[in-house]
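User: Sequence recovery, please. Input:
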C-alpha cells in the first residue's frame, strides 16, 4: 500500500511540473502574440503599408530673413538632392559599390551616412547627397529604373546673398545629428534636415521652419513609384525682420577687416542692434553643403576662431572703460564730488607698490570730468583706495555687468565682476587692497563682453535706464524692455560731462570726433601681458604684445540715438585705434539718419 502511495505522489508531482512547463510555454506564446498584435501593431502596420505605399516629406521653404529696410539677408534657392529609401528590398551591400560610383562618393562615406540613421524606426528617406549638379541629376534620372532605392527631390536650399556679411547675427544651418534627433523626440525634425545651429537661425528655428507637408505614392515590389495618391502641402513659417542696418553693418565690417575684434552699434532708446560685427567672420553658405570630419576639424581648429561670436562670447578686460563704473560708485557713495581734485605726477605709491599712470609726465591737478577726459589712472587709483571692491562690484552689477544682457541670440556669456566672496570661493584666498586699485581702472579679474559694454554705455546715455539689446526689429506693438537702475540721473550727467570732453576737447577719445555731432565716449586699453614680461621682450629685441583697444560712446549728447562700441584685439591704445573706427561709424549713421531726418523735416 505504501508503495502505491509513493508511486501516486511521484506521478502527481511530475504532472504538476508538466502543467507548469506547459503553462510557461503557453504564456510565452500568448505574450509574443500580444506583442505582435498590440505592442508592435503600428510598426508592422507601417511595414505592411510600405509594401505598396510610400510616405515622403515635402519640406516647407525656410522663411526669409530681412534687414530693417527689408533687404533680404537670408534667402532660398532650388536645389536637387538624392535620398536613400531605407525600405528597399535590396540589401545595402548589393548596391553600395555601384551607387557610390554613380554619386561620386567613397563607398565607406555612403555606408557611413546610411548607418548613422540605422537606429531610426522610420520610413523617411535618408539624404545621402545634396546640392547636386545638373549633370549628376541627369545621370541619376537616366538610371532610376535600375536603382529604385534612390529618390531625387528638389527642395529650397538656404542662400546668403551677402556671403560673410552679418554672419554672426544670421548664424548658419547644418545637418541635424542623430544625437539631436534622439534627444528631441517631440520635435518634428527629419533625418538629414538642415537646422539652425547658431545665432538667429538657431534662436528662431521654429519660427522660420514652418510645417512639413507629405506626399503619399504607390510603389511596386521593386520600390518603383506608380503614382501619387495624396499630397499635403507644407505650411510656410514666418519671415523675420532684423534690426540690423545693412549699410552700417557693411561699413563696420570694412573698418575692422583684417583685424580681430568686435563692433556693436545699437539704439539706446529701443535696444535694437543696428550692426553686429565679430571679426574674422565666415561664409554661412559654406555650411549648407555637408562636409567631411576633416573639413569640420580644419574650421573649428582655425587659430583666428572665425566661428566665435566675439560680441557675446569674447570676454575681455575692460580697461579704462570700467572707470565709468568706478566714477559712478564714488559719486553715489559720496566719497567724492565732481569737483574733487587729485594730483597726478605720473605715478603713485600705494600699499608699498608703485602704480603708474599711462601718461608718464603726469596730468597735474584735475577733477572728475577732467580725469575721465584724460583717462587719468592716478585719479582713479585715489578713488580705488577709498572704495571697497564689494562696493564697486555692487554698482557694476546694478549697471548690468557680471550677467548676460538677455539678447535674443544664444550662447551669451556672463563676464565677471570680482568681489571678496568671489575670491574666497573660487581661489580660497583673501582679497587684498592693492587688488582694488587694479580693479578701479578695469584691470585684474574683471571681464566683459563687447555687448555688455554697449549696454553699459546705453545705460549711461539713458541717464540710468537699462535696455535689453535685441537683433529683431521692433514692430511697434511691444514696448522696449527697460529697467531703471534707481540711481540719480544727475550722477550720470557728471560722468557724461567727462565723456563729452574726452571726444570734443582733445581728450583720449578725440579720434571719434565728428564736427557738429555731440559724441560722448570713453576709451580703454587693456594690458594683455605684464609689464615685466614686456620689458624682458624689449631687452631681447622682440616687440611686446600690444594691448587690446576699446572705445564706447553715444550721440547726440542730449538726445541719444546711437551707441557705438569697438574692440580691437591687440590694437594698442584705445584713442589711436578704436576711437577713429567708432568715429567713422558715427559719421555714416549721421549722414544716413540725422541729415535725412533734417531734409524730411524741411
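Assistant: Recovered sequence (602 residues):
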Amino acid at each position: 500500500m505504501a508503495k502505491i502511495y509513493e508511486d501516486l505522489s511521484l506521478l502527481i508531482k511530475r504532472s504538476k511540473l508538466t502543467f507548469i512547463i506547459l503553462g510557461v510555454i503557453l504564456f510565452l506564446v500568448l505574450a509574443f502574440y500580444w506583442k505582435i498584435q498590440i505592442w508592435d501593431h503600428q510598426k508592422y502596420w507601417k511595414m505592411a503599408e510600405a509594401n505598396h505605399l510610400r510616405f515622403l516629406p515635402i519640406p516647407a521653404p525656410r522663411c526669409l530673413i530681412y534687414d530693417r529696410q527689408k533687404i533680404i539677408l537670408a534667402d532660398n534657392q532650388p536645389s536637387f538632392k538624392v535620398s536613400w529609401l531605407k525600405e528597399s528590398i535590396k540589401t545595402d551591400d548589393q548596391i553600395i559599390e555601384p551607387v557610390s560610383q554613380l554619386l561620386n562618393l567613397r563607398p565607406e562615406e555612403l555606408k557611413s551616412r546610411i548607418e548613422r540613421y540605422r537606429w531610426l524606426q522610420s520610413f523617411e528617406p535618408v539624404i545621402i547627397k545634396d546640392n547636386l549638379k545638373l549633370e549628376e541629376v541627369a545621370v541619376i534620372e537616366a538610371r532610376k529604373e535600375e536603382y529604385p532605392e534612390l529618390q531625387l527631390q528638389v527642395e529650397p536650399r538656404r542662400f546668403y546673398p551677402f556671403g560673410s556679411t552679418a554672419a554672426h547675427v544670421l548664424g548658419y544651418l547644418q545637418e541635424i545629428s542623430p544625437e539631436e534627433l534622439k534627444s528631441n523626440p517631440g520635435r518634428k525634425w527629419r533625418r538629414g534636415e538642415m537646422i539652425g545651429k547658431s545665432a538667429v537661425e538657431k534662436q528662431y528655428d521654429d519660427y522660420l521652419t514652418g510645417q512639413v507637408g507629405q506626399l503619399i505614392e504607390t510603389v511596386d515590389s521593386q520600390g518603383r513609384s506608380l503614382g501619387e495618391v495624396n499630397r499635403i502641402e507644407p505650411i510656410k513659417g514666418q519671415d523675420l525682420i532684423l534690426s540690423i542696418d545693412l549699410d552700417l553693418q557693411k561699413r563696420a565690417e570694412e573698418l575692422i577687416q583684417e583685424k580681430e575684434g568686435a563692433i556693436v552699434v545699437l539704439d539706446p532708446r529701443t535696444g535694437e542692434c543696428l550692426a553686429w560685427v565679430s571679426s574674422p567672420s565666415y561664409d554661412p553658405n559654406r555650411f549648407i553643403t555637408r562636409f567631411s570630419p576633416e573639413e569640420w576639424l580644419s574650421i573649428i581648429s582655425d587659430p583666428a576662431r572665425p566661428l566665435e561670436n566675439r560680441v557675446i562670447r569674447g570676454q575681455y578686460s575692460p580697461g579704462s572703460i570700467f572707470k565709468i563704473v568706478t566714477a559712478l560708485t564714488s559719486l553715489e557713495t559720496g566719497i567724492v564730488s565732481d569737483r574733487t581734485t587729485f594730483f597726478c605726477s605720473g605715478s603713485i605709491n600705494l600699499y608699498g607698490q608703485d602704480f603708474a599712470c599711462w601718461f608718464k609726465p603726469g596730468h597735474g591737478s584735475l577733477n572728475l570730468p577732467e580725469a575721465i577726459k584724460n583717462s587719468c589712472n592716478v585719479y582713479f587709483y585715489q578713488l580705488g583706495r577709498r572704495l571697497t571692491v564689494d562696493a564697486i562690484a555692487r554698482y557694476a552689477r546694478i549697471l548690468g555687468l557680471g550677467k548676460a544682457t538677455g539678447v535674443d541670440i544664444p550662447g551669451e556669456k556672463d563676464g565677471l565682476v570680482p568681489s571678496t566672496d568671489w575670491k574666497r570661493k573660487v581661489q580660497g584666498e583673501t582679497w587684498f587692497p592693492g587688488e582694488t586699485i587694479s580693479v578701479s581702472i578695469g584691470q585684474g579679474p574683471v571681464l566683459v563682453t563687447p555687448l555688455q559694454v554697449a549696454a553699459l554705455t546705453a545705460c549711461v546715455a539713458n541717464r540710468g535706464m537699462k535696455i535689453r539689446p535685441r537683433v529683431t526689429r521692433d514692430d511697434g506693438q511691444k514696448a522696449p524692455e527697460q529697467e531703471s537702475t534707481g540711481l540719480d540721473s544727475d550722477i550720470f550727467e557728471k560722468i557724461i560731462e567727462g565723456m563729452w570732453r574726452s571726444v570734443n576737447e582733445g581728450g583720449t577719445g578725440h579720434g571719434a570726433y565728428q564736427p557738429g555731432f555731440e559724441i560722448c565716449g570713453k576709451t580703454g586699453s587693456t594690458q594683455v601681458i605684464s609689464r615685466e614680461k614686456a620689458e624682458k621682450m624689449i631687452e631681447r629685441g622682440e616687440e611686446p604684445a600690444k594691448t587690446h583697444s576699446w572705445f564706447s560712446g553715444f550721440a547726440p549728447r542730449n538726445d541719444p540715438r546711437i551707441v557705438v562700441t569697438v574692440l580691437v584685439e591687440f590694437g594698442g591704445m584705445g584713442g589711436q585705434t578704436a576711437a577713429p573706427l567708432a568715429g567713422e561709424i558715427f559719421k555714416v549713421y549721421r549722414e544716413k539718419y540725422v541729415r535725412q531726418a533734417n531734409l524730411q523735416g524741411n
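The radius of gyration is 33 Å.
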